[in-house]
Amino acid sequence: MKRIPATGKVYLVGAGPGAADLITVRGAKLLEQADIVFHDALVEPEMLALCPQAIKEPVGKRCGKLSSAQQFINKRLVDAAKKYPVVVRLKGGDPMMFGRADEEIQALKEANIEVEVVPGITAALAGAASIQKSLTLRGVSRSVAFITLAQGSGTDPSALKGSTTDQPTHLPIDNPNADTLVYYMGRKDAARIAEQLIRQGIEKNHEPENNHQTHRHGPDTPVHILEAVSTSRERHWTSTLAELAAGKADRWFDSTSPALIIVGRALGQKDTQIESEDLQSPSAKIDDRLQDSHILPNGRRSA
User: Fold this and answer.
1) Is 3.40.1190.20 the CATH classification of the domain at 9-121?
2) Model's pTM, two decimal places?
């Protein structure tokens, strides 16, 4: 039986860290042209205001809350591409960073549907910009690891049978061996992460062959936590691994906001002291010109 080709195209677009004016120009242009937008739960309302003409469908996942199963999202993208010319899957941050983009790309290709990925600014880079601290620093940090403890429920279809929440499970994953560590979705495990890093640092101190390693994290290693990066709700908490391990940040966290935990010696170099208090992001004010189509043309490509 001859397959009927789909007429639509699906764009996996990175929404960036939160602020509407931090989406790429190409991403904003595609939102303006979209017929339907499937968006993550964490996408800001100001971002969705960039596509007033489009049908908006929330398909986001939030840990511990009822959310769309990934297989269902894949099917909806396939079905939408057979009905609409321009379909946008709007993902927080960058689509290729902890966004399960591979599964959506595979499903679309298997359905003979054209797909394109438009990158976005991931939260780690926006967070570093907000606190004005480089994640790498000559002589201090020459390696960075992006980490999440959240794991999918596996590829076994039986694992999803009867489940409507697509709940993540936490598996015992060792912390990467890097100078600067950035944890995504680590709020519930913050104290445990710090305890593990301190314990691993002590163990490395007793290994002579590792005496020259720079990526050893101890109780006094700086920690910076950011919530809702680049939005008007952005907050900062700064201290050390010892304080984090002691649970000092547990009551500070806002369970409704995404949190980013950055750990490393680079954070403590020649710093102007940042207090553990709410800070408003300089990116909180949105440039309304994005909504008025005053977007620079893309000389090489058209959306």
Assistant:
1) no
2) 0.79
